[in-house]
Write a structure and sequence with these properties.
Elements: H1 3-24, H2 32-44, E1 48-51, H3 58-69, E2 73-77, H4 84-88, E3 89-95, E4 101-107, E5 114-118, H5 125-137, E6 139-142, E7 145-148, E8 154-159, H6 172-175, E9 180-183, H7 189-199, H8 213-223, H9 230-241, H10 252-257, E10 258-260, H11 264-280, H12 288-299, E11 304-305, H13 307-311, H14 316-325
Parallel strand pairs: 1-8, 1-9, 2-5, 5-8
Antiparallel strand pairs: 3-4, 6-7, 10-11
Helix pairs in contact: 1-2, 2-11, 9-11, 9-12, 11-12, 12-14
Length: 329
Amino acid sequence: MSNEELKEKLNRVREKALALEEEIGKVLVGQRQVVRETIVAAIAGGNVLYEGLPGLGKTLLVRAFAQTVGGTFSRIQFTPDLTPADVTGTNILLENELGKKYFEFQKGPIFANVVLADEINRATPKPQSALLEAMQEHSVTVGGATRKLEGMFFILATQNPLEMEGAYPLPEAQLDRFFCKISTPYPTNEEMFDIVRLASTRDPLILCQIVTPKEVLEMGRLANSIPMADDLISLVVRVVKNTRPEEATAPESIRKFARYGASPRAALSLASAAKIIAALDGRYNVAAKDVKQAAPSILRHRIVLNFEGQAENVSTDELVADVLCCEKF
């Protein structure tokens, strides 16, 4: 593919992404950065973890995204009594017209293009672990048989703050399989006004489908073909390395408050996000500012605090900011 062909196709990627943002914005007031980060993750083929208090529009955003992308959509409400079979499905015993019994696999809600895992940190570790294979390998193994999750597979999980009763921290291995963690802030006064006004003056909207799941996969393939200079790859490596407390070049706050840092999977995610951000900004090469913009959502859930960091209520966002301050952007 020539450079001109790539640029033309990347322009179409940008147009579709902006159309997605505009369509979702018809029902979701504000939260522009949250919407953009969600679209970046979808194009990258990663999974999203949202954290925020109830009522901030997380579920509304996921439903709106599912409508604009099309394909199949399912919702899993995580509760303490949820079982792995409720997520993946199970073999059920049936009987045919001749009276012969046989087992047939009944698919669970994980078999969809877009999956909403609502309040994921209210369930026990077993159903959460049922997601791990699907999130990383795009497959499900039940009863010794492995079934592929075909086409686009996108998990959008919502998480309640750990300070809330009945919420528990997710295992580190599961957190690392989320492409990014997006914090959903409170709306501004102006946005609150628009939310209340629009809710009382219009009927529920049915959003238009902007792209297909197949097109989202193609958008990701094109965005990842953007070249990345060696010095920017080195920047990504340094940023990820400096989240680890054992590194001599890590900032003092990381060495003092972090127990573990980010993995190589974080470096891959950071590079991919930087490429997609560049494409959505209308550029055909990656800049250092793209790495800086992508870093908070990619790294905030991959830094694990030690006891001292937890005792002093240190925010991982503060640690990521300290890491970025070590570099010149």
